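Problem: given the chain below (352 residues), write out its structure.
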Amino acid sequence: MDSVLYLLIGAYTLGISDGIYVYKFDMNTGQATYVSQVTVDNPSYIETGNGEFMYAVSENQDEEESCYANTLRFDKTKGELTLLNSQETFAASPCYIVADPQSKHVITANYAGGSLSVFPTHADTLMPVMQLVLFDGSGPDTTRQDMPHLHCVKISPDGNFLFAADLGSDMIYRYEINRMADSLFLKEESLKSFKLASESGPRHLTFHPNGKYLYIINELAGTVVGFNYNNGDLSEFQTVKADTEGGRASADIAIRPDGKFLYASNRNKNDGIAIFSINPDNGNLTKVAYQHTSLHPRNFTISPNGSFLIAACKDSDVVEIYAIDEQSGLLSKLDQDITNVEMPVCVKLVSR
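Solution.
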């Protein structure tokens, strides 16, 4: 594995930020060096795709006509991104995007639209929406859960199912993926719902590297819930607190590549990242520490070698870099902040 990767940073463009910034990232030292940038409107989440063709949302608030999924080509020799095309999501506030590598469909979760948008691709470039899946429902928090708020979509490790987290109705939705050509990507009749505790606010989910467990972070309750995963079905086995201060703004979740530790970020109060060890026999989490960060750690990523965690802290206008202790999973902040990106909200690593 090349020790130097590319680091992509997506930033809200409400102020002086341009869109997506490209850095080189050294996995031996944790040092990041600026390379280039490209103008994209509010790219709050990036899907790195196959490394050459990438996708990013344009998350505009409650303005359906200006909400897009974008295709970008990445020239790895120069470290430069080029915006190729944009397709309307036909739903407001797309905040998450994922690509299915088998069928090359791309899916956005639309927060204010309460929906999923499915795009086919041609030569890896996005085509117009082929499927718009709308949801119903609400939750007890009349301000935050007035309607469906889809916040995350993931393809299952076996490649057979799509899972979506709905903050508005305390639901995880699951669809079977249709692999037949010229058919709708999601088999809408296969919909299955998994209910979380009332006023949880499910936000982001991740699968364990062994494919046996799914974990979700709940924005409102500040909890992480663990599920056994088996051929499209989920069975809950544990709920633990990531946020003990009641910030009601837990954000992101990720697992170190070796599967030993899980990290969950929290905002609004005592901003930081909760660190959990993972029992290899049953997936149970044990909280081992809490690492304070700058304000609003909306998104973070872990290097493929498991040695570094990179956090986008929006309200402090900083991307922070932490070393990860191999044995304990604890984080140590390095004096290598990236400070010239205003409102960073997404970080992704890509091989060269």
